[in-house]
Write a structure and sequence with these properties.
The chain has 232 residues and is of the alpha/beta class. The chain contains nine helices and seven strands, in the order H-H-H-E-H-H-E-H-H-E-E-H-E-E-H-E. It folds into two domains: 41 residues, no CATH class; 187 residues, Rossmann fold (3-Layer(aba) Sandwich), CATH 3.40.50. Strand 6, helix 9 and strand 7 form a beta-alpha-beta unit. Helix 5 packs parallel to helix 7 and helix 8 packs across helix 9.
């Protein structure tokens, strides 16, 4: 029954694509991805206005991050969770690009992100990539790159191993679980560059810390971080 429901939802999404991806109502000609009501009702964090915001604090004492932000608050059962589910599991990749464009507009006005040279999405392990078929964070990166006028390169970083499930691990155990899970493929292309790492949701920051550490091991690099959502 559940599988039938999922197939029906996928069919509806294909047959009637011009609906709000948050609430399902029809979109008018001026609207894209979200209806105007949902666009204004999204729980924006405005973290970009505060250097020492909640996302930035997740990395204090763990990695030397120049600037960090999350665009939206994540709460179970609400719009942002539904959007991210559609993006991550239902192939609605336009959601990632759309949210990236919106986020990029505000980051252009935020001083800490003004010197970004390159945008890199957090990489998936090759097994996860084969299973899902795409990296949801890459589409968020593409939207950011479009409005920030920055190059996006998903080929520079690699996830070298799949970590165990993080769900029941403590904050410290999560860090240990992923600390050597990433590598830099072409270090010479990152030397003296300011890299913006992007992901979909920030929870403990363990995975992004591990990836940032791999980048910062390259000479002269700086790292900033942006995620679609922050999960308190």
């Amino acid at each position: 029954m559940k599988k039938l429901k999922t197939l029906l939802q996928d069919f509806i999404s294909l047959a009637f694509p011009d609906v709000c991806q948050a609430c399902g109502v029809g979109l008018n000609k001026q609207e894209q991805v979200l209806c105007t009501y949902c666009l204004f009702q999204l729980p924006y964090t405005n973290f970009h206005l505060e250097k020492d915001n909640k996302t930035a604090r997740e990395f204090w004492g763990r990695a030397d991050i120049r600037a960090a932000t999350s665009f939206l608050y994540f709460k179970k059962g609400e719009r942002v969770q539904h959007l991210l589910h559609q993006l991550k599991y239902r192939r609605q990749t336009q959601i990632g690009v759309y949210l990236g464009r919106l986020c990029g507009k505000v980051l252009k006005q935020a001083g800490g992100f003004s010197g970004v040279d390159l945008i890199c999405p957090l990489p998936l392990h090759k097994q996860s990539m084969r299973r899902r078929g795409y990296n949801q964070s890459e589409f968020f990166a593409l939207g950011l790159g479009e409005t920030m006028k920055k190059k996006v390169d998903a080929s520079l970083l690699a996830r070298t191993r799949i970590a165990e499930s993080q769900t029941r691990k403590s904050r410290f155990d999560r860090f240990l679980n992923v600390r050597e899970a990433f590598s830099v493929r072409h270090p010479h292309r990152l030397v003296n560059r300011h890299v913006l790492l992007v992901d979909d949701v920030l929870t403990t920051g363990a995975t992004l810390t591990a990836c940032a550490s791999a980048v910062l091991a390259v000479g002269g690099t700086q790292v900033s971080i942006a995620t679609i959502a922050y999960a308190p």
